[in-house]
Amino acid sequence: MTFTRRDLMLGTAAALVLPAVARAAPELTDEGLYREPWFLDSFMVLPEDLAEAEKQGKRFVVMWELKGCPYCKETHFTNLARPDIADYIKSNFVVEQLNIIGLKRSGMSRAEIHALRRCYNLIFDRSRTVAENLELARAEFSDLPRAMKIIDFISHRGHRQYTVPRLKGTAIDDDDDED
Questions:
Q1: Lowest CB count within 10 Å: 4, 26, 124, 126, which one?
Q2: Domain contains 177
Q3: d(CA 59, CA 23)
Q4: Same domain for 28 and 97?
Q5: Is-contact 23 57, C-beta < 8 A?
Q6: Long-range pairs for 5-13 at CB < 8 Å and ≥24 separation?
Q7: Left if phi > 0, otherwise alpha if psi is -120 to 50, otherwise beta: which for 32?
């Protein structure tokens, strides 16, 4: 069989384009969220999911999303569409997707959902260290058991690390947060 220069050019172009085209697109779920096929499918028992991730030698990520959120959609179609990013995440992390709709379906009241949002915003407020924020959150949300579970989970992380949102002009690490 003889190959022409055109055959070689077409073959090279196909080899470069097909991996990007072959990537599995995120699926739009019944809840209105985009979901990657490699996200964890679990019963939402976070301590068990964390233990499974640790057994695999990976870090555990909780990815909060909301139906109709343009930033959530952009994360899937821009960032997670890049094979280098998706492959790195799949190799190093177990990702569990949680959403506000799931909180409503679990029977949480609107007031409790808003309290959990306030708790999350307080914990990851970049004007103070996470350790300082945890103490403030512990005092403010001591009467909310679900918030206390989040606070205790982050407080007793041991050698686990977590990611906080990066804002312009802030340090990347909270080195002084270590226990």
A1: 4
A2: no
A3: 23
A4: yes
A5: no
A6: none
A7: left
Token representation of residue 153: 């989970």
Return the structure tokens found at 167. 């804002």
User: What are the structure tokens assigned to 92, written together?
Assistant: 């190093």
Q: Where are the alpha helices (DSSP H) in 22-169?
A: 46-55, 70-74, 83-92, 100-105, 110-123, 130-140, 145-155
- In this structure, the answer to whether residues 71 and 28 fall within a common structural domain is yes
The boundaries of the domain holding residue 135 are: 108-157
11-64 residue pLDDT tens = 555 555 544 445 678 998 887 889 999 999 887 777 788 888 899 999 888 888
Is the full-model pTM beyond 0.90?
no
**Helix%, strand%, coil% for the chain, nearest 5:** 50, 10, 40
